[in-house]
Amino acid sequence: MAYGGYEAAGAAARRHRAIKILLAGGFGVGKTTLVGAVSEIKPLRTEEPMTENSIRTDNTTGVERKTTTTVAMDFGRITLREDLVLYLFGTPGQERFWFMWDELALGALGAVVLADTRRLADCFPAIDYFERREIPFIVALNCFEGSRRYEKEDVRVALDLDPGMPIILCDARSKESAKEVLIALVEHVLSVADEPVSR
Amino acid sequence: MPSNDERWLDAEAGPVVRPYALTQGRTRHAGEAFDLVATVSATRGRVTDPGALSPEHVSVLHLARMPTTVVDIASDVDLPLGVVRILLADLRELGLVAIQAPVPTKPRQIDRNTLREVLHGLRGL
User: Is residue A10 part of a domain?
Assistant: First the structure.
């Protein structure tokens, strides 16, 4: 049987560009809200890592003995143009999910670390992760009602961020605000792209 | 009295992991690794043995008639990402899909023009 309807080989010349943006932050910090505010949200399930006995790559011996847990990821899609699509991935901050991050980070445009000023420490692991891998990121402070408006510079000190690192205030529920966060990230990536890469 | 796990884990029971039942228990795919935003496109390849494809393979193949990313397929067929990767690798082995790496494959390799286009696109939302 043949499957009709696919794109003609010659027409595939126009390359579809898929850009990844990571959204990191602790549990309950508003990642799902932000993804939903600015993008077409889509369900995406992944699994927790397998045990070592699945390492053999042979088709029949790679049978896994351990049951795995399926976890939902925040995943959103923003079609900027027909051939240019942004994919937002919100990843849980807990270490057990970090197996996903290495792959997500590869080739990613950059990352947004969403922080709640009442629980700033929750975003330390994410900041550490991006700094180590030299992945450009910005910090967005989700301003929850009732939370004290911190001065950005207080947050910079608390998170030990470089002076040039953008910190912006946002309301994850607002499309405009979520958009501003993404714009700030892209502007930051463009500005660091100007600097010679150390090494 | 065997425990619940042991009862199901004899050789005849076969693989017991539910999502991975669709992959005959395989948790790793064959061939070259591909990114989750890699673009999948159905080829003009023909299925010589229709029995080689499960209904899930067919669903995935159907979604790839137009170039689509791995994550979009996973989301649309509502199967875990790991399962979809294995199904896609099977289809690739059969020559039914081509999987193309996303444009930037290393950190900080997105060119400035693309960044500007993204910026422009976001501002226009």
Answer: no
